[in-house]
Amino acid sequence: MIDTVKNAESTPDQEQPYKELGLKDDEYARVKEILGRRPTDAELAMYSVMWSEHCSYKSSKVHLKYFGDTTTDEMRAKMLAGIGENAGVVDIGDGWAVTFKVESHNHPSYVEPYQGAATGVGGIVRDVLAMGARPLAVMDPLRFGRPDAEDTRRVLPGIVAGVGGYGNCLGLPNIGGEVVFDESYQGNPLVNALCVGAMRVEDLHLAHASGTGNKVILYGARTGLDGIGGVSVLASETFDDTAGKRKKLPSVQVGDPFTEKVLIECSLELFAKGLVAGIQDLGGAGLSCATSELASAGDGGMRVHLDRVPLRAENMTPAEILSSESQERMCAVVEAHNVEAFMAVCAKWDVIATEIGEVTEGDRLVITFHDEVVVDVPPRTVAHEGPVYHRPIERPADQDDLRANTPDSLPRPAEEELLDLVKTMAASPNLASRKWVTQQYDRYVRGGTVLAQPSDGGMIRIDEETGRGVALSTDCNGRYTRLDPYEGAKLALAEAYRNVATTGATPVAVTNCLNFGSPEDPAVMWQFEQAVKGLADGCAELGIPVTGGNVSFYNQTGSTAILPTPVVGVLGVIDDVRRRIPTGIGAEAGETLLLLGETRDEFGGSEWAHHVHGHLGGLPPKVDLKREKLLGEVLVAGSRDGMISAAHDLSEGGLAQALVETCLIGEVGARVFPEGDLFTALFSESAGRVLVAVPRTEEQRFTDMCTARRLPWRKVGVVDPESQALEVQGLGEIPLDELREAWEGTLPALFG
Amino acid sequence: MRVGVVTFPGTLDDVDAQRAVRYADGEAVPLWHGDHDLQGVDAVIVPGGFSYGDYLRAGAIARFAPVMREVVEAANKGMPVLGICNGFQVLTEAHLLPGALTRNHKLHFVCRDQWLRVENTSTAWTTRYDRDAEILVPLKSGEGGYQADDDTLKQLEDEHRVVFRYVGENPNGSRNDIAGITNARGNVVGLMPHPEHAVDALTGPTDDGLGMFLSLLDTVVKA
Fold this sequence. Notes:
The structure holds two protein chains of two kinds.
Chain A: H1 5-10, H2 25-35, H3 41-50, H4 53-56, H5 61-69, H6 73-76, E1 79-81, E2 88-93, E3 96-104, H7 106-111, H8 113-129, E4 134-144, H9 150-170, E5 174-181, E6 190-200, E7 215-220, H10 232-242, H11 257-272, E8 278-281, H12 286-297, E9 301-305, H13 318-323, E10 329-334, H14 339-348, E11 353-360, E12 365-369, E13 372-377, H15 379-383, H16 399-404, H17 418-427, H18 435-438, E14 449-451, E15 458-461, E16 469-475, H19 478-483, H20 485-502, E17 506-515, H21 522-542, E18 546-552, E19 556-557, E20 560-561, E21 565-574, E22 591-596, H22 607-613, H23 625-640, E23 646-649, H24 654-666, E24 669-672, H25 678-683, E25 690-695, H26 699-708, E26 713-720, E27 725-728, E28 732-735, H27 736-751
Parallel strand pairs in A: 4-5, 9-12, 17-18, 24-27
Antiparallel strand pairs in A: 1-2, 2-3, 3-6, 4-6, 7-10, 7-11, 8-10, 9-11, 12-13, 14-15, 15-16, 16-21, 17-21, 19-20, 22-25, 22-26, 23-25, 24-26, 27-28
Helix pairs in contact in A: 5-21, 8-9, 8-11, 9-11, 11-14, 17-27, 20-21, 20-23
Chain B: E1 2-7, H1 14-23, E2 27-32, E3 43-46, H2 66-76, E4 81-84, H3 86-93, E5 100-102, E6 110-118, E7 134-141, E8 145-147, H4 150-158, E9 162-166, E10 178-182, E11 188-191, H5 210-222
Parallel strand pairs in B: 1-2, 1-3, 3-4, 4-11
Antiparallel strand pairs in B: 5-8, 6-7, 6-9, 9-10, 10-11
């Protein structure tokens, strides 16, 4: 029997499985207080999923407020939509608005790597589409456990194939991302997915449901039993008694990229024809989320006829229909006189579209099922007024010991061992070429990709007439963040910022995906609070706003949390992509290699300490955001005046790794002459450094500019087009073939 | 020169093919899969993607699209037709070209810059190349392994109908390293790599692919 509001009123004491659905005693009590009665099954399903950590941000909300508090009007000037919308939107000039966001799909991807990763891509693409933008590119920051662990061999190939399988079939170029290995991700890989899209400024669509009489139209795929997760508790109770056993489908959603591609083209045609008054994608929490958010965003109420929803399974209950996370669905609010035209566009694309409800007077979200009311709630209480927790915070007991255990006592290599170390590090799983992964991704589709992996940042052209485009990078070093979450978050920001500047673009906005352990662990909450503050303070210092983000908690195995991993994405703007700076050297005859920035003896959390000694301790490298900003300005100026022929950011693995990569990508050799202690010069991970190649004719002009602007620089070598080796003065040389074998051999050897 | 570019649901590289036509000073005419109408174009490109999701078998459903009936008829009368990647798969399914494309031998989708040798420069799409020229264009496909029986292969080789051959390591297990072929008349060409992604060195590895679209211009002007 369907649990109606009438039934709930007459059976106030009926026991409900709210605990199994994840609601605490006091949360359940609050639902009852809001409604003045017990919730129906359908209402319980809605509240439990919408008040979950994932949807309600109940543990993070009080901290995330800090992003807003630290954003000045000046930083906000170019922001057209920010935190709270499906994705942040930035004005990039020439009448273009760009929207971008990164989201996690960690847990589903561990359970079912292919579909988990695939639907992670699908979800973020719909978020961008729901802003009215054409999705233009994706990036995927991925993190795995030990590369040689058996489970990594299950998880990594599946996730990579899922990212590729969905994104390739959707026709979106994959222009970058990360692949990081660390033991802490062993039982909890991180799958973050970023999408960037663009639209004309005047076409920005926000989720609104205003206008009594407007119709609510669900379009896209049918609704099934996939991705129902916890709500199956309700289903089994209902069905075990009456219909006997029923096959449960996996709680990980199953994606269909073809349907999504058609959905994108159909939606863009609907937007272009002005047929959409409000739009919302269906992602986590399915219709529960879409209806309550659309209704909350408008100024009226909403009535939804749940029995009209096209289904792909029989006998679905209202609770199941509301909670289903079936993919490739959108919900639009359409003015009554546009419904016919709306349906015609959907028919052209063979997209199923169904009028499931309308905007009403009043302020209630009323959902009926065969004319019986199964939900009658104030929508804001579902979507926005969930519980808020002030979780206990405590600096981890081991933090001081960890920081006291510096890398200073680790044995360092003798000079004659350094060349071998260059090769060893180039072949280490975290520094080795990502080609095995990225060659499973289409980076060319749509013809706008100007830079993609292995460049420091991805770059796409937005405007074919003017050449205006954007660059993107995502970064985070979880080891740095573990050693100091405040500085570590700033370092992640600094690196993403630097990577974008290294392409020649000017950084303008920030998004994030904050992956942490359990919020119920005070030590984790301390990491979280520190990381949020570090990132927000860093953004204020750089003068660029955080436009959106995502929080993923409970990333841990037993009581062991992952390394705190605040992945930071930076968006940059370039007025003409033709002046982008490539990563590989050798494009011009006769280039000088300059190292911008300062090198210190900094090995805390370094790749060398990790790979060679299995050590994590001490302090991460110092971060100086004023310096990063200056460095960015110099790079952009150099690009604008044609003074830079290649550039590569220094990060994990230091100068040695940057040299290896820039030589191998450019397919030419170089002679370098680092100064001081060679181990430090080659492997230190000091922040704020970029290796640039300048044509000899521009060397004087460029170094004069650096000197005038007080940016430290040093000549560290020359490109040698005749040589097929990397020569380090005083140490000898390594043939590029040998380096390539080391750099490119690792991942194929591990994953086939 | 008016060149039709077919769009099926799930076609992805139609915008790229249209751009390539424009770069060769042609007019790109979008052709919708559901229409029995070629709109009087001089040539047709069936671009890459995943037509109808390619769920049954790559290209297997697309060959039954209304627009394909017109394409087949026109091709049989001599109209230049180019199938790229999924388009090549569609042309083999439609029997405009012999053989079939199967899963890559290593079972992974492969996206990489691929060297090709141009071995037939007398087709409607390859006259601008020097014989045995090597060109670098993107290859991106999961089902790019060219298969045909021994007799068909022999015929293709004997009649010099292998237009493009992979240089270096075979990326997908194609028999005889075949990357692209033509029909007996030389007006229909299909290939797995993507010349339309190599029309500008800014966004592709090279502009080596532009030659195919310029070749078409010559063909159409001559006709």
